[in-house]
Amino acid sequence: MAETLKDGLFEESEPVRPEDARPSRDGRRKKSALSDPVVVVLLLVIMSIVIVFLVGLVSAIMTGVLMPAAPRTEVERTIKVYEAEIASGKMTPQYWSDYILTLVQAKQYSKADQVAVQALAGRKRNTAVIWTARANLEIARGQYDLAVKYADKAMAEAKKERQGEVDAARTKANADITGEGESMGYIQALLLKANALELSGADAKAIGIYDEYLSENPMDADIHTRLGVLKADAGDKAGARKEFETALQFVPDHPDALEGLKKIGGTSK
Amino acid sequence: MTERDAMTMEENTSASPRARRILLVLLLILLALLGAATAFLIKLAQPVGKVAVGDDAGGISWKSSIYGYNSKIDGQLNKPNDLAVAPDGTIWVTDQSRGRILGFGPDGQYRRMLFQGPTGKAKNAFNRPTALAVDEKGDIFIADTAAGEIVHSTPDNKIVAKLSVPTPLDIEVKGDRIVIGSVAGFAIFTKGGVPVKVVGARGKGPDQFDHVAGVTIGDDGTIFAVDQYNNRLSAWDRNGNRKWIRNIGTATNSLEVKGSGAMAISRAAAAKKAKSKGNMGLPARVTTDGRGRVVVTDPFGFDLSVFDPKSGDLIAKYGQFGGGEGQFSYNNGIDYDEARDMFAVADTGNSRVQLVTIPDSGGSATAQLRRDLSGRLRALIPPFLLLVSLLLGLPLFMWWRRRRQRDDEDQLVSQPSAA
After folding, report:
1. pLDDT tens digit string along A3-39?
2. Which of A89, A231, B39, B307 matches a 20 to 30 Å C-alpha distance to B130?
3. Residue B7: what pLDDT?
4. Rounded Cα–Cα distance for residues B176 and B162 (Å)
């Protein structure tokens, strides 16, 4: 009779026929999935893939590829520097504006929107640049009507700020200060509004704004060129030629004016 | 068929087809999930911001930029004007407004900072570190223009020697030669500090100089000197005998202001004009590439000009003005990393160092591989090595397992006959 080992003692058992024998260490029948080499290979492959992925992830973090300590581009630097400035409470309206514009450049529109709201929260004065940045954001998003609305808001705020500066200057020193001319903030918002109107297809309104601007600032070659392009698109070739030629009077090799003139069949003088 | 084969066949046919199916499905799901996760992480690892390519970069290929060592303002570089690449790949950069020198790896990772002083911890201990050079051992040589001295320091901040030199503008160290550029010419020393020759006097004549802002030594020992205000490039042998001299642009010390009411043109148009004539605006620093070509920075042309080392003929210009990655604004210092076939450029106006390549710089395939592995690919080295180990280990493991099973089978089959 065959003997099998049980709990360290031999005991008698039925003889094992070769056709019934199974490979095992303890004599028990083994039908577990782990006896299947294909299953073992699949398990090992799965474990290996997971381990390699995790090692890759840790390696990317340790080598600074993911979550780098220092900025890698100008945009990243600007964003990180402004985040540090916000944390230390040193933000000015111009910094807020620059931060929003950088986020727009980085196409982080949601974050730019949040930052704009944060910048305006509780602030009643000197908000023109922030509204202008917000208008820029809406142009980038394609929300031109909102951009026009925010540009109008920026212009109104810029006018108030300008009046405040003039009043302060009068009380301080010169009672004769008239405060003629608009501030840079107003002009920037005005041109942004014109740009938004252009992009929304309201060319006639945009032309009106550019004409108004050029009546105060006749030597701006870039705006003459922009006006020339709009007039050419509207079919006013004579008007367009006049604008391009005026631009070239101030900047003789203005590339966009030269190209615009060439497109309408003109040549520079 | 042997008894063993029969047992194996029976085992296989009665094994877990269900388990196999489950694991296969699990594997496919895992691959899909990890694939999506990997795509997301790759996108996350991309630097945010515009990279100039093609004409926008003027033929430059941007690899990476170094802005500082952390996200705080005092951790950022502030108008760095010179740099030098050490044999171990460390890029030493002058942060002159803060009187310090910062060391970064070719992967852009911060390594360490240098100050002057016996304890090595004095703040702003360099007066105004203007120029840097590194020798074959990795020791750093700092030209401190305002202090009028050259400081020889080890990488771990131990001062080896100091040398008083009037208004040192640039320095290069190679082999047994040290070359120092100054206002009226340049001086050649042996490594031990013994003067070999002082070349030049201040002026506009052929043997005169007006601000030698850039010096370098080629692999064959030829010394190249950039005469900034005379807008000239010249080559000299190791003992200070001239080989050739070339005008490379309009001398800025000869310019006259003519007329009034001049029309304004854009900066980009001015640079384009300068490029079209092959003129350099204001040549500054100089280095040589893997082919021995002489590469000179032009802060006013916002580009790099490449010259033939034998004749001084202009070969090509690369670069464009701008703030995007791959563009320059008042680029100044330059050095060539031979091990990685790339240039480190101190992009002063943009307050950063850029690692860039230009065509035909003569780098070997190994150098290009090292360069690629110093970029984002460096994160893949450990998992790649692990994957190779697993791929080699898996068949070994399966072979060992099979062998153990056969040993078990042999043991059990022989037991009844033993009984």
Report:
1. 444 444 445 555 555 555 555 555 445 457 777 888 8
2. B307
3. 58
4. 17
